[in-house]
Amino acid sequence: MHAITIEQPGGPEALVWAEVPDPVAGEGEVLVEVAASAVNRADVLQRQGFYDPPPGASRHPGLECSGRIVALGPGVSGWSVGDEVCALLAGGGYAERVAVPVGQLLPVPAGVDLVAAAALPEVVCTVWSNVFMVAGLRPGETLLVHGGSSGIGTMAIQLGKAVGARVAVTAGGKEKLARCAELGADVLVDYREQDFVEELRAATGGAGADVILDIMGAKYLARNLDALAVNGRLAIIGLQGGVKAEVNLGALLAKRAAITATSLRTRPLEEKAAIVAAVREHVWPLIASGRVRPVVHATYPMSRASEAHRVLESSAHVGKLLLTT
C-alpha cells in the first residue's frame, strides 16, 4: 500500500507519499481501507519532529479516518467486512489502510457521506471528553471557545448550542467570526482587535464563562482565569501559546475554579473506548438529526498532504481539511 512517510522532520515537503508494508489486524483490531483522513495540529507537530507517536502506534501521521472494513482480527465481534466506519487513531490515518482497535470504531452517522465522516472522530471525541465529560458543561451555562473557526472550535460551538449553552468564541477576522455565528455562536470576539476578557464580561453581566476550551496554553492562562466565572472550569487542550506560565492561586481559590489539561492520543485503549462509546451515545444522534454536522473547508488527495499542511499552518481555513486516497 501507499502512505505518507516522514523520513526527516521538517516542513510540509517532508511528507512523502511512498510504498510501505501493509498493516495487519491484530487481536481486537479491524483493518480499514481508508477513504479519507483529516489534518490536525498534532500531525504538524509530528512532521516537525516534536510529537512522536505513542509506543506501538503507526509511524504514519493521521489521527482519524473513514473507510470500509476489509478484515477482522482475532476476537472481534459486532462488526463485519464491508461496514462503513470512521475511527479515532493513535496514528496511521494518512495511508491506504490502517489497523484500528475495535473500541475506537464508529459507524458513519446517518446523513453523512463516507469522506466527510473523516472530519468527525478526533474533534468530536476531543470536545465531548473535555467540555462535557470533564468540565461538565450544563444547559444555561456559558462556554468560551478559543479558536472558534478551527475544526475543534466549529464542533464545540455546535455541541454547546445543542445542549442549551450560550457560546462565546474568539477568532481572527470578521469572515471567520461570521462563520462561527452561522454555526450558532452568540458572542463573537476578534482577538486581533478586542480583549476577550472585557468582551465576555460585558456579554455576561460581569459573570464570565462557566467553561473555557483553550488551545493556547501558557499565553492565555492568566487571562482565562480572569474570564472564568465563579465555579468555572478551564479545559486546556493545546499549547500553541507555550507550555510554562504562573498561576495566581489566590484568584483560583477565590473563584473556586478548576483547571484541567488533557490529551487524547496517548490515553490507554480502554479510556479511548469509553470516550468513543459516549460519543456514539450522545453525539451521533445529534449528527443524524442534522443538529450537528462536520464542517469541511477543503479536500485534497492524500499524495498532496503537504498542501493541506500549508493551509493549516496559515490558519486560512474554517473547519477541517480532509485527505482522500
TrEMBL record:
It comes from the Bacteria. Gene3D superfamilies: Medium-chain alcohol dehydrogenases, catalytic domain (3.90.180.10), NAD(P)-binding Rossmann-like Domain (3.40.50.720). SUPFAM superfamilies: GroES-like, NAD(P)-binding Rossmann-fold domains. The keyword Amino-acid biosynthesis does not apply. Its EC number is 1.6.5.5. CDD domains: p53_inducible_oxidoreductase. Keywords: NADP, Oxidoreductase. GO terms for molecular function: NADPH binding; quinone reductase (NADPH) activity. PANTHER family: OS02G0805600 PROTEIN, QUINONE OXIDOREDUCTASE PIG3-RELATED. NCBIfam families: quinone_pig3. This is Quinone oxidoreductase 1. It comes from Streptomyces lavendulae subsp. lavendulae. The gene is qorA3.
